[in-house]
Amino acid sequence: MTPAAAGDRSKSQLSVLVWIFRDTPEGRGMVFLLTVIVWSLVLTCILGVCLVIAGSIVDGLSQAKDNALLAGGKNLQYTNRVSVGTAMVNAYVTGNTEQGPVLVLLSGSGTPSPIYDFQSLVERLRLKHPLVVMERLGYGFSDHTQLSRDVNTVLEQDRSVLASLGYLGPYILVAHSMAGLEALHWSQQYPEEVVGIIGLDMACPEAYSRINIPPRWVTTCAAALRRCGVLRLFPSLVSHQLDAAKAGALTDNDKASYLALCYRNFMSSDVRNEIAFARQNAGYIDSIGLPRVKLRLFVSNGKGTGLPKEDWRQLQSNLLKKTGNNSSSMTIFNVPHYIHDYETVQIAQHIDETVSHWRQGV
């Protein structure tokens, strides 16, 4: 830009400022508008700082209480951490070990504590079946890491944990929501290890072409609310993940532990990475070709899935047709996505019947 052009540009900018601030109704209106904008920004910043300070104070006071709660009582029996490389994965083992095969419970994405989420169902299944509740990295009592959440890595970590616990298969995979992807891939890669899949409103690859997945910046901002303590000031932000506390058979102490784990694990690094990998994982599984495997599906009304009831149920029906065999079936319930927390008794009875048939080779 030449000196002359630069001078002309400066004069033009100056003339605009002179017009804005001239002593006219338009100028005074513009000054008032700018004043409102500036003060709004200042007040927003002050409010943000106050929220962070308040959140940090509340979080600091609450963390010590949460840590003490999670280190004692029932949580001691729930904590069984197994080394997977440089990280520790937690798995809860319970049930009748004289019966087989073992039921491996796999939670949906973002469930703060798979153990507490499945507790009501586990209590009804444990007398008849051996059970292992897996808590993937970033969940429950497991470590937080920056490891890849591609479906192959997740699968091999879970298989490693089960092998360390002495379970080499075959397994019945009980998968909720996103864990349906891992269950399907398990039967793709190791069909001899999978007797069948029990789907608790499980997701399928086709679903991820329809579901809106939050971008990385949204999940990162959500995680920041947890780290700075602001999340504790707005508990309603996490209440949608606590169906087990609302509808399950948890005691008050169980609910307190579940909430403490929610504040610890909400949008952990592993959960954020898992969400980022969701479409890639679904596409990868779909490209291999869905396996033929025994399926027992329990299907919700779609609330909590991000899809209308009819669309969600159609996806489940499509999955049954593409993947299931003559031993496969589907039962529909008019309850939300965390279906096992709302229809615990009926689902447990159906699982008992299904496992009995599968044991007999039916």
UniProtKB/TrEMBL annotation:
Protein keywords: Hydrolase, Membrane, Transmembrane, Transmembrane helix
Transmembrane segments: 31-58
Recorded superkingdom: Bacteria
Hydrolase recorded as keyword: yes
Keyword DNA-binding: no
SUPFAM superfamilies linked: alpha/beta-Hydrolases (SSF53474)
Gene3D superfamilies the record matches: alpha/beta hydrolase
GO molecular function: hydrolase activity
AB hydrolase-1 domain location: 103-231
Name of the protein this chain belongs to: Hydrolase
